[in-house]
């Protein structure tokens, strides 16, 4: 018996430093015990070592966990709550119905498995599939000489304990009768069709009685029907008439020119831009701002760093109790405890603004979007692997989306927290050009109530993908940046400046300004732009 350890750091809500150095990884979140010579387990090991999995430790651990439990006969443990606890480090008693991280990663896992068997795993002896509606993996053999894929039932290495738990029972049934889920899936539709043809052929042979010699003689042959020449001739005449009319009116109104006109320049350059962020070969993560984080920081009067945000330590009771000292006078113990619990509840909930939701909805409906590759993530559920392996659109500044801080050092227009909690943030112009200011912020005494935003386009963490930042010194600034981004005519000059001869959009930053009346942004305009090297 061999013990394998998962390849990633455990996701935890404790105060463990993040990200962990290579030499100081946390304790593995679960133990894998499977015979190393099991061909199905060897297949799993090859999958997690493939290009599609090696950069995502969470997906690899997800697959390792469910496959190990299936091959060990412990299918009762393959449920959403156990996966959340063992793979994603959720605390005991967490609400699986309100936290969709397992379901979200399961969709990604199914797509990555399909991509593996369509690419690197084309010659694998077995196929691995996780049917929708559950998490129990199914192993199938490749097609044999009869043209049918056969389900390979895992021989468990441990006896499944008796349990009355409904989830365990349903998972056990799914594991013992996997064909229903598999044959209903698109992934194995070809197998289903082949099986149905064989079964229909056999049933027909069993129902058909032996033919009588007398019936084999065709004493009354059916007369040969004559072709419907008249109907065919009529159709030819009609088509010819239509073609003649189309040619006449086409020449009269120059219709071919109107039909084949060139795509407008603004649409063409914007399409090239969006096709690079919505890439068919990698996932794109769309991450709106965390409104609950903004409210929590206003209560505890402390700015939450990316490290604290990633490990969840900012939401602990002790951290909140320390931050709200002085908000209640006199400070009675019971009152402080009630206030701490209320503030903690705000921090645990998932809030975002209507402006961010509208921008997210517009982006998700872009014609260049590839639905199978678009992942909408709440900021608290995003992981460092997502920003390393995929493209990302991050909405909001560091006050509401701490993941932006990973890219701040690369930018000329740098966001910093405002002086007062809940007030405007500040944009620092690190290398001001002639006529530019050193800082930009919303001033309370400004009669126009000007606000500012930034759109930045730069490489992701591994340098192969892209990250799009949409930021503002406040909600109106972020809204203005989003409106500018979605306006093809406004974006055209910037994209043309940033486009290299080979069609690749170089890194760029745009500093925007707009008037903000009653929290509604007017038409934004460019104050400054920076174009990076190719």
UniProtKB/TrEMBL annotation:
Which residues fall in a compositionally biased region of kind Basic and acidic residues?
Answer: 198-208
| Transmembrane parts of this sequence | 229-253
Keyword terms: Membrane, Transmembrane, Transmembrane helix
Where is region (Disordered) located? 1-22, 198-219
Q: What name does the UniProt record give this protein?
A: Uncharacterized protein
Q: Which organism is it from?
A: Paracidobacterium acidisoli
């Amino acid at each position: 018996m061999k013990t394998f350890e998962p390849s990633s750091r455990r996701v935890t809500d404790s105060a463990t430093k993040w990200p962990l150095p290579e030499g100081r990884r946390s304790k593995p979140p679960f133990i894998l015990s499977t015979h190393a010579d099991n061909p199905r387990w060897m297949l799993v090991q090859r999958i997690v070592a493939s290009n599609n999995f090696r950069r995502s430790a969470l997906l690899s651990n997800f697959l390792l966990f469910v496959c190990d439990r299936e091959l060990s006969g412990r299918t009762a443990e393959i449920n959403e709550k156990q996966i959340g606890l063992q793979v994603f480090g959720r605390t005991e008693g967490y609400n699986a119905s309100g936290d969709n991280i397992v379901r979200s990663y399961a969709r990604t896992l199914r797509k990555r498995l399909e991509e593996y068997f369509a690419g690197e795993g084309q010659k694998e002896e077995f196929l691995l599939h996780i049917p929708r509606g559950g998490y129990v993996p199914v192993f199938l053999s490749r097609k044999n000489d009869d043209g049918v894929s056969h389900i390979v039932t895992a021989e468990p290495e441990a006896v499944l304990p008796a349990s009355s738990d409904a989830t365990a029972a349903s998972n056990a049934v799914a594991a013992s009768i996997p064909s229903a889920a598999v044959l209903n899936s698109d992934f194995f539709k070809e197998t289903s069709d082949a099986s149905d043809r064989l079964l229909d052929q056999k049933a027909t042979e069993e129902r058909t009685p032996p033919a009588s010699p007398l019936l084999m003689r065709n004493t009354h042959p059916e007369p040969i029907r004559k072709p419907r020449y008249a109907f065919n001739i009529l159709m030819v005449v009609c088509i010819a008439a239509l073609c003649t009319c189309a040619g006449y009116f086409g020449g009269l109104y120059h219709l071919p020119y109107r039909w084949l006109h060139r795509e407008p320049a603004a649409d063409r350059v914007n399409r090239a831009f969006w096709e690079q962020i919505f890439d068919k070969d990698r996932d794109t993560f769309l991450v709106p701002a965390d409104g609950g984080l903004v409210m929590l920081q206003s209560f505890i009067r402390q700015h939450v760093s990316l490290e604290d945000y990633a490990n969840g330590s900012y939401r602990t009771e002790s951290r909140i109790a320390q931050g709200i000292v002085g908000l209640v006078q006199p400070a009675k113990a019971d009152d402080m405890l009630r206030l701490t619990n209320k503030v903690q509840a705000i921090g645990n909930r998932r809030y975002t603004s209507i402006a961010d939701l509208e921008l997210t909805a517009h982006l998700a409906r872009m014609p260049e979007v590839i639905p199978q590759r678009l992942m909408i993530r709440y900021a608290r559920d995003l992981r460092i692997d997502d920003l390393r392996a995929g493209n990302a659109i991050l909405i909001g500044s560091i006050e509401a989306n701490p993941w932006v801080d990973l890219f701040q050092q690369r930018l000329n227009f740098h966001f910093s927290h405002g002086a007062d909690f809940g007030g405007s943030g500040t944009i620092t112009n690190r290398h001001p050009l002639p006529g530019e200011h050193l800082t930009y912020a919303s001033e309370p005494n400004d009669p126009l109530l000007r606000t500012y935003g930034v759109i930045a386009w730069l490489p992701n963490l591994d340098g192969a993908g892209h990250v799009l930042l949409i930021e503002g010194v406040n909600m109106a600034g972020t809204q203005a940046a989003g409106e500018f981004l979605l306006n093809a005519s406004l974006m055209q000059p910037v994209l043309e400046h940033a486009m290299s001869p080979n069609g690749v959009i170089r890194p760029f930053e745009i500093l925007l300004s707009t008037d903000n009346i009653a929290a509604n942004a007017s038409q934004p305009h460019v104050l400054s732009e920076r174009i990076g090297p190719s």
